[in-house]
Amino acid sequence: MIPSSRTTVAVVVPHYELPHDLELVLTALELQDHPLDLLEVVVADDGSATRPEPGPRPYRVSVVAQADEGFRAGAARNLGAAATTGEVLCFLDADTVPEPGYVSAVVRAVEAGADLVVGRRRHADLSQTSPEQLRSWLAGSAEGGGWEPEVFEEPAWLSEAYDRTDDLRSAGDDAYRFVISAVLSTTRALFEAVGGFEEAFSAYGGEDWELAHRCWLRGAAFRHARDAVAWHDGPDFAGRARDEDEARRSRNVEGLALARFVAGPATRGEASRGLVWEHPDVVVELDLSGAADGAEDADAVACARSLLAGSDAGVWLTGGSGGSVVGALDDPRVHAGEVPAAVLGRCRYRVHLEVPVLLEGATLAELTEVAPVRVGPHLAVRRARDDHRDDGAAVFSLEADGVSAEPARGSDLQRAFGHEDHQRTPRFSR
Predict the structure, then answer these.
(1) Taking burial as the number of CB atoms within 10 A of a residue's CB, which of 44, 252, 391, 415 is the most buried?
(2) Quick check: pTM over 0.85?
(3) Is there a single domain that holds both residue 256 and residue 296?
(4) Cα-to-chain-centroid distance, residue 96
């Protein structure tokens, strides 16, 4: 990476009907200690009745706009990012004012190896603040004097998470939960590799976690930059909800949107109790071409059945008679053909099989808990994140009584299904 003094940075500011707050953000960007000739700012308007006019600034600034079709902050950010060329993309909400060292702190984190950086979002009442007061306050915050707004508490759960994970250095698969789009930055390379924000989100919240989840699975290194401070105009969301019922309804909207795209128990609950999702947690690819010589359709069905049981998984059959198997099953979890890129980009685990196997004594969901893991010579469960990193993750060979994954050959589905039915002990009686 080139030195920070020459790193180009694009700041994308999604905006909707917030002219006062936007003016504060644009003013604060004038005060950045990163060279302003290396800064480009794009206001991405999400359908405001009056197009924002940023006015003359000491940095390059432009406006892009999309139609008002609901809350489409993710789409607006994508639109803004596409209109820029900076090596680092800083996303700052229109009501989130950066301190003078914000951009340079982000650049330092990127140069230290971070692919995704989340700043420190603080909270204050800036609703009546003028640009002149803001300039005085931001200068005074470093000098210990001057006018200051009312300051609100930071969310404790975020601070605790950053402390617990060493500012996300030791975070696990839940790292996405501590990323906030109001103070989110990424390298352009990472943003383009994952395809930007998911534009299906049409209500407040969730699109930042969904993007961060895909970045994590892509192998990105996360960092929380404590010195990249920006001030949100008003309290955290928990302090803005009128009552608990409003907060609950908002959580449900966000939760359902997240569950659609983000796999795992934190969004969908335990796999054994879950629903069927378009983007499964585990992607199984079964090659039915020449490598699976001797396998019959019934063997593929038996394999899919054993792997899907109790797991949030999807099976893709390639080559051979995959289409006829899918047609016979009519199961939304079993597909013919290659796995779509959107699905691969969201699964946490992958399995590639060259022969159908029967997994017995454990569920695929249980194997993911110790992944990367191998059961016998044919079944290996890999972590998607590991596939994008060169960390040398050791594969654990599971040798447990009663757990096996032997090739499926000569499957007799009618007898197997009938035997299971006749051997079942009723739970209830009259």
Answers:
(1) 44
(2) yes
(3) no
(4) 21
